[in-house]
């Protein structure tokens, strides 16, 4: 039996919850949120540190507190959230198949919002040589074990990768009595926020070793040691610079990948750089009526923008359901010099649009320019640009008057 | 005699790198490069009376989860963090645990409370 729904949202994390609330407020009553975990809230449930919601609520909330605001609002709006259910398949004609303890169900939605979040890169993804003992964890898994399950992951720890989760776990594991020997970063700069380096490493005297990587793991039952070395500009280890740490645990914080297996089955085109769907300014994917938001679209550093993206996806999905999205967006946005990616990847002219982007490496006092052919449309100067921090720039409808090509680049 | 220190602000994701001028009495005489007033206040505190928010977990007996997450409701003096963690380790709460339940009030006479940041229901 096919169950009909106006809007199905896959994932009850910060993106999915914000989308559901916004859709309901915009008059779509028949909203269903599907979540594979037992509780709504997504990754926020295990992020017990504070700093969430600074932009949206002007408060430094913890993850569970931030999530609760949305869960409570969803409850008060009577939004249907089914947890402990796995979405097995989404088809391009928006048929959603789910599996849960109550069996297999099939839904047909008018519109779908993808909000599945991301997953972590693992040891296999970065090919660290050595034996394969116990004691190698990704930062998020360590966070889940320590913060939710009361399982300590190790006593003497080396962390590879200086992303925010790695930095936060350095502090967290120190709080729980572990000795964090070093945070090792392959790049010549940290990929985490400055404030986290200060309050998670500097406060505890944990060294941050830039331009270093792990070249060997030793141990049979359990990690016994990790050997690191300096790397050259190409990222290759430099002979004679190796250093061995006796430790029992290696934590990996080496990047996040949007989790798009379901999107691929639905025929959604994925962007090679972001790992998320290619979208237009409505956050609509290449499949009409399927929208994407949050970390499944692009990996964010701030949850506030995840929620905002969920709300935008919901507003445009509601327009789609009501039949008021007609025009196809066909102006391609190109990431030029110094810009790793820019989103949305295609736009329609004459609309207010917020662009999000990341730069390729750290810059000081540089200007980001939007150009249509030889016509400069907008420029904005930044004191500092950092690959770890997403840049957002608003363009007004009048800025995008009759634009035919759009390129974004850093003026050298 | 005065000296300068660079302080990275931890108040918000901007992470301003502030230049702080400190006089001979360890008083802050100048804060440069802060984008906002909160940053200035943080820089002055950081020199004279460094504080941090504390977030951690506490054991829960008979709960649907074995832990409840907690935080300080205001930043606490930095040198008290380790003692505070030791206090948290001694505590066991019995489920159900309420959201924003006060676990420790007036921690070490600082006026800071430790509160839960989620609710934990009984194990069914």
The CATH superfamily of the largest domain in chain A appears as FAD/NAD(P)-binding domain
Tell me the radius of gyration of chain A.
Answer: 22 Å
| Helix content class of chain B | 10-25%
Question: Spans of chain A of 5+ residues with little confidence (pLDDT < 50)?
Answer: none
Strand order of the largest sheet of chain B: 8-5-6-10-9
CATH homology superfamily of the largest domain in chain B? CPE0013-like
Provide mean pLDDT of chain A, rounded. Answer: 95
Give the overall silhouette of chain B. Answer: elongated
> Helicity of chain A, in percent?
10-25%
Q: What name is given to the CATH topology of the largest domain in chain B?
A: CPE0013-like fold
- The helix/strand class of chain B is alpha+beta
Major β-sheet profile of chain B: 5 strands, mixed
The CATH architecture of the largest domain in chain B is Roll
Total count of domains of chain B: 2
The CATH class of the largest domain in chain B is Alpha Beta
Kindly identify the CATH topology of the largest domain in chain A: FAD/NAD(P)-binding domain
How much strand of chain A? 25-35%
Main sheet attributes: strand count, strand direction, barrel closure of chain A = 7 strands, mixed
Tell me the strand percentage band of chain B. 25-35%
What is the CATH C level class of the largest domain in chain A, in words? Alpha Beta
Low-confidence stretches of chain B: none
InterPro entries (chain B): CPE0013-like_sf, DUF1667
Organism (chain B): Ruminiclostridium herbifermentans
Protein name (chain B): DUF1667 domain-containing protein
Pfam family, one (chain B): DUF1667
């Amino acid at each position: 039996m096919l169950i009909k729904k106006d809007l199905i949202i896959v994932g009850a994390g910060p993106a999915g919850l914000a989308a559901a609330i916004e859709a309901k407020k915009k008059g779509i009553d028949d909203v269903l949120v599907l979540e594979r975990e037992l509780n709504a809230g997504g990754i926020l449930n295990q992020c017990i540190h504070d700093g969430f919601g600074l932009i949206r609520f002007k408060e430094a909330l913890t993850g569970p507190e931030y999530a609760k605001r949305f869960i409570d609002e969803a409850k008060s709006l009577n939004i249907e959230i089914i947890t402990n259910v796995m979405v097995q398949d989404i088809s391009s004609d928006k048929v959603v198949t789910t599996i849960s303890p109550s069996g297999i169900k099939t839904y047909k939605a008018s519109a779908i919002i993808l909000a599945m979040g991301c997953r972590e890169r693992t040891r296999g993804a970065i090919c660290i040589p050595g034996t394969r003992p116990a004691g190698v964890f990704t930062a998020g898994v360590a966070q889940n074990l320590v913060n939710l399950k009361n399982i300590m992951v190790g006593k003497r720890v080396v962390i590879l990768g200086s992303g925010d989760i790695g930095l936060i776990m350095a502090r967290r594991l120190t709080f729980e009595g572990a000795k964090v020997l070093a945070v090792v970063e392959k790049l010549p700069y940290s990929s985490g926020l400055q404030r986290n380096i200060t309050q998670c490493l500097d406060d505890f005297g944990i060294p941050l070793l830039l331009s270093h990587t792990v070249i060997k793991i030793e141990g049979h039952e359990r990690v016994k040691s990790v050997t690191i070395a300096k790397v050259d500009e190409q990222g290759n280890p430099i002979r004679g610079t190796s250093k061995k740490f006796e430790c029992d645990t290696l934590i990996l914080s080496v990047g996040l990948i949007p989790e798009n297996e379901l999107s691929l089955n639905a025929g959604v085109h994925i962007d090679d750089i972001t790992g998320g769907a290619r979208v237009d300014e409505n956050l609509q994917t290449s499949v009409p009526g399927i929208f994407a938001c949050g970390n499944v679209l692009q990996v964010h550093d701030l949850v506030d923008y995840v929620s905002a993206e969920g709300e935008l996806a919901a507003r445009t999905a509601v327009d789609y359901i009501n039949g008021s999205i007609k025009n196809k967006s066909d102006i391609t946005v190109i990431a030029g010099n110094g810009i790793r990616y820019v989103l949305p990847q295609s736009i329609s002219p004459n609309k207010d649009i917020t662009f999000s982007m990341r730069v390729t490496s750290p810059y000081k006092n540089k200007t980001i320019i939007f150009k249509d052919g030889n016509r400069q449309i907008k420029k904005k100067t930044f004191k500092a640009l950092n690959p770890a921090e997403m840049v957002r720039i608003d363009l007004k409808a009048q800025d995008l008057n009759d634009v035919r090509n759009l390129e974004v680049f850093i003026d050298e | 005699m005065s000296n300068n220190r660079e302080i990275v602000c931890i108040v918000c994701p901007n992470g301003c790198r502030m230049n702080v001028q400190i006089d001979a009495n360890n008083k802050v005489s100048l804060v440069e490069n802060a984008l906002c007033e909160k940053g200035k206040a943080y820089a002055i505190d950081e020199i004279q009376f460094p504080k941090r928010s504390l977030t951690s977990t506490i054991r829960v007996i008979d709960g649907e989860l074995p832990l409840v997450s907690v935080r300080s409701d205001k930043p606490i003096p930095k040198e008290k963090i380790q003692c505070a963690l030791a206090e948290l380790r001694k505590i066991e709460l019995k489920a159900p645990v309420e959201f924003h339940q006060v676990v420790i009030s007036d921690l070490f006479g600082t006026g800071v409370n430790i509160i839960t940041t989620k609710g934990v229901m009984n194990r069914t």
